[in-house]
Design brief:
mainly alpha, two-stranded parallel sheet, 2 strands, 4% strand
Length: 151
């Protein structure tokens, strides 16, 4: 949500400050052009960012769940993300880019070199992870478990 207004402000300042004759941008490029060529913005939950995807450039947006931090949506991340993607009317191609494609391209990494795509779906991964505890655990409970393990 913050990137689009920031780019708008940069675009305005380039025009407002053009009288100085100084530019830090590559010749012929706007701040938005530089953004689209060089940056990738990750978000956890941000409907405004999705709604600005055409302005930002769909190739510059990536989703993250930020686990295990407190603002993470885990363990309901896929469901929450899908609600936002559907509400923003994202296409299947945009969903692929946002959920894995853009990050894979940006970091020059092929996730499917490690696990076939059909085994990397939410359902398939959850089926393989039946031993993963997804219950919410308080800090005091973690402390109790730590002390028990180290006594």
């Amino acid at each position: 949500g913050w990137v689009a207004p920031w780019l708008d402000r940069l675009e305005r300042h380039i025009v407002n400050q053009s009288w100085t004759g100084v530019s830090f941008l590559p010749t012929g490029m706007t701040p938005t052009d530089v953004w689209r060529k060089n940056f990738l913005a990750c978000y956890i939950t941000e409907p405004s960012g999705l709604n600005n995807r055409n302005h930002l450039g769909i190739d510059t947006i990536a989703w993250e769940c930020d686990y295990p931090h407190s603002d993470s949506t885990w363990p309901n991340s896929p469901e929450m993300l899908m609600e936002e993607l559907v509400a923003s009317e994202c296409t299947d191609e945009e969903i692929d880019k946002i959920t894995f494609g853009n990050a894979a391209r940006f970091f020059d990494w092929d996730p499917f070199a490690h696990i076939p795509r059909e085994q990397a779906t939410v359902g398939a991964l959850r089926a393989r992870a039946t031993d993963v505890d997804i219950s919410e655990t308080s800090k005091s409970e973690y402390r109790r478990r730590y002390e028990l393990a180290n006594s």
